Amino acid sequence: MDAVIVNHLRKVYQDKTAVDDVSFAVKKGELFGLIGPDGAGKTSIFRVLTTLLLPDGGNATVDGFDVVKDYKAIRNLAGYMPGKFSLYQDLTVEENLHFFATVFKTTVEENYDLIKDIYIQIEPFKKRRAGKLSGGMKQKLALCCALIHRPSVLFLDEPTTGVDPVSRKEFWEMLRKLKEQEITIIVSTPYMDEAVLCDRIALIQDGKILSIDTPTAIVAAYPDDLYAVKADQMHQLLKVLQGLSIVKDSYAFGEYAHVTYEGNLLQELNSVGLTGIDLHPTPVTIEDCFIKLLKEKQ
Amino acid sequence: MIRTDKLTKRFGDFIATNEITFEVEKGEIFGFLGANGAGKTTAMRMLCGLSIPSSGSATIAGFDVYKQTEQIKKNIGYMSQKFSLYEDLTVAENIRFFGGIYGLSNQQLKTKSQQLLHDLGLEKEAKKLVGSLPLGWKQKLSFSIAVLHDPKIVFLDEPTGGVDPITRRQFWNLIYDAADRGVTVFVTTHYMDEAEYCNRISIMVDGRIKALDTPRNLKNNFHAESMDEVFYALARSAKRSE
């Protein structure tokens, strides 16, 4: 059974269409990623699914319940961690957790096993007010509060935005463990490298889904042979690549430039006086796919 | 252009920035990396003349961070993901407003605005409210306004957070162009691929600079394939978070 079904969903704010005919389904126990930049419509989708916003078209269900008619049922079974820190800043860690447990008519003790691994990391600070916690600790507390009523579906809106790479890795470790508890997780992120950690992903931009599949299948569908190239003069190399007719596409990619082309690129690059050229085939990443899809759309 | 010697900031018994020493050359793109809470923001505030150090010394474009904070502010540009532009002013109004604050004459404002709008391809959007622009455009506009008064140094605090991969790369082209014009660029980011675009990088851990070199040398020294690995090797040892 599908835990979440989204069917031709639309959300319009005045003159801006934030969600434009979006459809997808998430299986029970799946870790599903909405991958896209700020303003893509990710938060609007989350707000409709958590019954905080009414859709302007289409419909959606969470665990079989309709987001409009059955909003009360959904509020009991969904866990939601908004992008903006939304706990009570002037309550302590402990008080926040008890508050959310009580609101959902349960106790911290009853579901402690679910949050234990995460909570023990912030337990030394349980008497501290939430507003005084570090960013990483706030994030962990927010996750505990979203889990304390043992939701069947967990919605995480950009939990790792602005978080450094080490803390991001830790957060995804936590999600992997939660998945073992058979909780369905929908997570959004602007970081393309996190996409491969999901079971399936939807790439989203301007309220529309560009592609939806497993990360492996999305990468496999990339139509061209992708190469990485670098030279001693990187900035110049990037400009040269943009001007060559045999180059189909090129863009900076960390230490290298990624390029697709037909013909003898090495010869062309040598002839314009670039030195230290290193050109080799490279595996396609989700970011390459996203760039390709964006350019096709434009 | 930037020179610090044992620059330190204490808050009570907490040492946010601990004896950092480094130099940044004119026209250099300098990446200032570190985990959340490593002390980057505190250090940047001192370098911008917004916070007086507890000890140590630093000069920015030759001006002293203790005594000449007003001159520092006139000679730098600043942009962060959070402090953006005025959303309820138009593109043209924002340019006029910030240009005016930085003391540009009416004549300069006119020429510079036209140039800026032309370079960004925003001529048609000049009369639109900034709030109605896509995030990527806002960030590009915000950067161009931060360098409108031809500052010697521009400080960029996570300028590309949440921006799509194509716009992120266009943004870096703007950074390269500014550096080519001789503007010194001081930038923080959580994207490790962007660390590769910098001439040199420093990585802060628990208030101290733990590594400072070119991306290539850092990877060699840490026997790492990518900057991500270098960062992970250093930041994993961090004792504190934000």
Tell me what you see in this structure.
The complex is a heterodimer of chains A (298) and B (242). Helix content of chain A is 34%, strand content 28%. Chain A has 298 residues and is α/β, with parallel strands linked by helices. Chain A has a 6-stranded mixed beta sheet, sandwiched between helices. In chain A, helix 3 (93-103) packs parallel to helix 5 and helix 4 runs antiparallel to helix 5. The radius of gyration of chain A is 22 Å and the shape is globular. With 242 residues, chain B is α/β, with parallel strands linked by helices. Helices cover 37% and strands 26% of the residues of chain B. Chain B contains 9 helices and 10 strands. Chain B has helices spanning 40-47, 69-75, 91-101, 106-120, 135-146, 165-180, 192-195, 215-221, 227-235, and strands at residues 2-11, 14-24, 29-34, 55-60, 63-64, 76-80, 153-157, 184-188, 200-205, 208-213. In chain B, strand 1 and strand 2 form a beta hairpin. In chain B, helix 5 runs parallel beside helix 6 (165-180). The longest helix of chain B is centred in the last third of the chain and has 16 residues, at 165-180. Chain B is globular. The chains are: A alpha/beta (298), B alpha/beta (242). At the A-B interface, helix 5, helix 6, strand 12 and helix 10 of A face helix 6 and helix 9 of B.
